[in-house]
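B., you asked whether I could sanity-check this one before it goes into the benchmark set. Here's the sequence:
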Amino acid sequence: MIGRWPLPGWPDGFPGRVPIVSDVTAALGIDPLVMLLRSTALLALSTLRGRESTVTAGAVRIRGILEELTVGQDPQGVLGRLGEVRMVARDVKWAATRLRRVTLSGRNVHVRPAAISATVVAAPVLIDIDIAAEDLPQIHPRLRLAIDADGLATVHPTGTTRIGLEVAPQHAEDGLTVTARALRLGSRRIPLPTWGLLRRRIPTDALPPGAHLVGVDTADGVVRISAVLDEWRAPVTAGTLTDLAARLTSGATEVELPITEP
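And here's what the prediction gave me:
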């Protein structure tokens, strides 16, 4: 199989045609498809960074602004491996959900060869999602959740901050659990018992299909949800990467990624 691509990063005078499967490149420890993946990622970063763009993968359609896209080096230098792939996007919109920032970190990313089309595999994929307090589901129409710069979360009546409940989110298999820890009256803090009546479950609809929740925390103005996708797979060929590179070069801001269900 032969692939052609006019992408950055090649030596001067490189003809742009290499065999995708070659005993010579394998002997030299060079994987042309991996090199093409790296070049495409570099092109995507240079053309999409700071711009609002849309990515569709199967039934998932996400719109946001790309901040970071890096492809690491495999520490062992194994043929066909890309190491860690990391992507950060902000102001993300997924269906009716607004996310302040999404960080994806694919570990042990490698290309699995096949007769017709290879498969890119990441196992696992670490997911961190920041959701602003005002974008979380309401606990009650007359209550407001606030998270300060130190990550302290309080629920208080709309229109006043002098009285409120200090709350702490925790993760469970069926979503988030918010537990009241203390009553705050001005500067006074009164600890509360951990009664079941002071807990409320919030489903986590923002997680991708197949991902499971592993942690939740609060930071400056946000709730940070951490999840893990055990394995992610997508078919890849030199042709699909070349087509994607051509679209990016022409200024396209909508990208469709093939995906194999985990």
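One thing to flag: The chain has a mean pLDDT of 80. Otherwise nothing jumped out at me.
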